[in-house]
Design brief:
Length: about 110
């Protein structure tokens, strides 16, 4: 996959989980910050898996939710960036657009 182009450019594959696994043992502040994001990463993973299992694109989910594709992209990315947390109603609409239901639990 890292095939050099004729002009000498080869894309670098970045795996955030591998990076975190390597950096966390040597950087306690990084490990604390990364572990603090686990809920958001898990929520984002659930959303993306729901969309994938439904065989839908962002544009298709957006249409079913009645929002623009750019708004749906912001919803998905908001969980990773922590700049804005989607409301329960938004998450419910997302789930319904994927043919799922929203379930919330505490462990």
């Amino acid at each position: 996959m890292n095939t050099p182009k004729a002009y000498g450019y080869a894309p670098v594959v970045f795996n955030p989980q591998d990076y975190a696994a390597k950096r966390s043992p040597e950087d306690a502040a990084f490990a604390d910050a990364y572990s603090g994001l686990q809920d958001e990463f898990a929520a984002l993973d659930v959303l993306l898996q729901a969309r994938k299992s439904a065989g839908l694109t962002q544009a298709e989910v957006a249409e079913r939710m009645g929002v623009k594709p750019s708004a749906l992209a912001r919803i998905e990315m908001s969980l990773a960036s922590r700049k804005h947390s989607p409301s329960l109603e938004t998450l419910r609409k997302y789930a319904q657009a994927c043919g799922k239901s929203l379930t919330i639990g505490i462990q």
